[in-house]
Write a structure and sequence with these properties.
With 286 residues, the protein is mostly helical. 55% of the residues lie in helices and 6% in strands. The protein starts with a strand and ends in an 18-residue tail after the last strand. The protein binds zinc ion (2 copies).
């Protein structure tokens, strides 16, 4: 990975607009505060849509982009691969080629020079400043060679555009402009920040039960928000495992979806944690 020092203006402007939408939503909520049938100024229907789209768009990242496409944590059929790619594209986190490349670099060089988003260079750098710049990736081909053999992934762009547009159009058609604002634009920003928290908070504060040689942590709060990705120290210890929360009470929502999909026969050959045995020390350092 080579830092070029150039700003990626398309990403910077997109992220700026998405984050400004939080201010617009705060103003909208304030001006409709206390109206009947609303919560914080938005209709309950709109909040329901927000939660639903946060859930399916978030799963597109945790179950699809991360646990399936990056780490091959289970096997599935062609149609479900497409569903996962489509849902992941709804959260505007780039195409699989770049997402998987960034993330595999992160695992290989965690909190070292080749890590694109280590908070050792500053919490905000690890959270979101890192991707406002352009990088050269001499090893990208090698890193994503396996997934790029798939023509579906090589030709992701039109699917990404349709997924992103439908992620805005569907809430607009159901709940009007407030649906577009809260369940469309703000939901994209929310899922992005939650994902980035795994990189920033999840490498700064929390428990470190496993000696992984970098700064990754386990936290229930990020576990809850990021549908289970907050058990990040577990994940660095055993990155193939498709289960991240290794205690029954861990808030790994994606794990429960995985078990459900396996029961339905939609996914199979789950990679279970190698060390899911007596040498686990989850409570150490809690
Ligand atoms: Zn990490
Ligand atoms: Zn990972």
């Amino acid at each position: 990975m080579k830092y070029t020092g150039k700003i990626n203006w398309i990403v910077t402007l997109t992220v700026t607009v998405i984050n400004l939408s939080f201010l617009v939503a705060a103003w909208y909520g304030y001006s409709h505060f206390g109206e009947p049938g609303t919560f914080l100024g938005f209709q309950c229907l709109t909040w329901g849509l927000f939660l639903f789209m946060y859930f399916i768009g978030g799963l597109g990242i945790t179950l699809g982009y991360h646990r399936y496409f990056t780490h091959s944590g289970f096997k599935t059929s062609r149609w479900f691969q497409f569903v996962l790619m489509f849902l992941g594209s709804m959260s505007l986190q780039g195409n699989l080629e770049e997402w998987v490349n960034n993330h595999r670099h992160h695992h290989r060089d965690s909190d070292k020079d080749g890590d694109p988003h280590s908070p050792r260079h500053g919490f905000l750098h690890g959270h979101m400043l890192w991707f406002l710049y352009e990088y050269e990736w001499p090893e990208e081909k090698k890193m994503v060679n396996d997934i790029m053999k798939d023509p579906m992934i090589r030709n992701q762009m039109p699917v990404s555009v349709i997924a992103a547009v439908s992620g805005l159009a569907v809430p607009y058609l159901i709940a009007g402009w407030e649906g577009f604002l809260l369940a469309g634009v703000c939901r994209i920003g929310w899922v992005q920040h939650v994902t980035w928290l795994v990189n920033s908070w999840g490498h700064t504060w929390g428990r470190r039960p496993w000696p992984t040689g970098e700064d990754s942590t386990n936290t229930h709060l990020i576990g809850l928000l990021a549908l289970g990705e907050g058990y990040h120290n577990n994940h660095h210890y055993d990155d193939r495992a498709c289960i991240h929360g290794w205690n029954w009470y861990d808030l790994d929502t994606t794990k429960w979806v995985i078990y459900g999909l396996e029961k339905l026969g939609i996914i199979w050959d789950l990679q279970m944690p190698k060390h899911w045995r007596k040498d686990r020390k989850e409570t150490v350092g809690a």
